[in-house]
Amino acid sequence: MQIFIVVLNYLLMLLIGLIDNIKGPVIAPIKSFYHIDYTYIGLLLFIGSLGFITASFIGGIIVNRYGSKAALSGGLIFIILGILGYFVSPFFFVFAVFFFIMNFGLGMLEIGINATAAVTFVVNQAIMMNLLHFFYGAGATISPNAVGRLIEMRYPWQNIYLLGGMITAAMLVVVLLTRFPGAARYLNRDKVRFIDVLKDKYVILFSIMLGFYISSEVGIGNWAVTYLKGAYGMNSVKSSMYLSLFFAAFTIGRLLGGFAVERIGYVKSIFIFASLASIFVAGSMINQNLSILLSIAGFFYSIIYPTTMALAMKNFKENTGVAISVIVTVSSSINMLANFIIGKLSDIFGVFIGFSFIVVFMVLVIVMLKVLSSSLKSYSQ
Q: How far apart are CA 135 and CA 271, in angstroms?
């Protein structure tokens, strides 16, 4: 049963990767469908992140009270409801409400997955967490290329989401029929107020660093296709291909990176990979012929999130679940604002300038890591 739950956890993360990365290639069709500009797209992504953040806050409470199965089932149900709502959304703000609901489901699903991982990944946490996020990368690799081809075939963007909804419904049946152990809850179920956890300086440092990382990684997933189309006039298939290759490299890194992290050290690995990620994304923006560097950068993005989470798990021995939930909530808030900023800058100065802030965010990850590592010497070797 333990092995089955671990495999189910991996498949659910694959599902998140599939659905979460539909949005990048469908930004252009959504923009045309509702006759909106990039600022409204940024607002849409802001609203989606708000849904994720809300779920991160509520999901931790649900897991502590009812267990991870409740969070997993609820997350899958909200994803399905959000997707079905796209078909009855004639106006942008109605669509935005259902986009919020779908992302609320994604957030609650991820909290449920992390809650289960916290008690099932008891050894080699860096390897296990990287493998977990490898499956997110696998879904993210498949999604953009497939979606880009469907768009070129003039397949309606709502129907593309419906395909994801059908897979979600199948996974919901599996989760409902699965018996989760009572221990599959966040560690230390004592009542701890979020505000008390927020007073911990390490929580704040982890949150800010992870927030800038998420802003950079998610920024590529959200805006790379729009950037490549707007800056270089690429079609949907070619621009989506570069994004799929990014996630392919990302996935390879997730598969192999955990072994390198255990050998090199957590903090040192994050520093090396974040630095190379910044260099490769910046290099890809020199001209169109170097766009492949954006795809290669995915390899260097790969280990940063799961390794940071593993580092946090090592640091927060008590109230692990609440601490992780707060970190995810605060970091997602930073990402929410970052996506709106990219959209606004793209309208004012063009998509090239907007997309360049993805490099800025990764540089800020390195800065925050240096601040954090000075307090975590025991994990830096």
A: 23
Q: Burial of 33 by CB count in 10 Å (0-12 exposed, 13-18 middle, 19+ buried)?
A: middle
Whose structure tokens read 């609440």? 322
Give 2-35 pLDDT, tens digit per residue.
778 888 989 999 999 999 999 989 998 999 999 9
Q: Sign of torsion, CA 79 84 87 93?
A: negative
CA diameter of the chain: 55
Q: Which of helix, strand or coil describes residue 218?
A: helix
Q: Are 172 and 76 in contact (CB under 8 A)?
A: yes
Three-class SS state of 200: coil
Beta strands in the chain (DSSP E): none
Helix/strand/coil (H, E, C) string of 1-28?
Answer: CHHHHHHHHHHHHHHHHHHHCCHHHHHH
pLDDT(218) > 70 = yes
Contact, 252 vs 260, CB < 8 A?
A: no
Q: How many other CB atoms are there within 10 angstroms of residue 9's CB atom?
A: 24
Cα angle vertex 264, ends 261, 269, to 5°?
60
Residue type, 277: A
Query: Using CA atoms, how far apart are residues 302 and 255, in angstroms rounded to an integer?
Result: 9
DSSP 75-126: HHHHHHHHHHHGGG--SHHHHHHHHHHHHHHHHHHHHHHHHHHHHH--SSHH
**In angstroms, how far is CA 162 from the centroid of its own chain?**
20
Q: CB 366: neighbour CB atoms within 10 A? A: 17
**Rounded (10°) angle between helices 236-264 and 266-284:** 160
Each residue of 49-94: pLDDT tens digit?
Answer: 899 888 877 887 888 788 888 999 999 999 999 999 999 999 999 9
Beta-carbon contacts of 61 under 8 Å, excluding residues fewer than 6 positions away, are: none
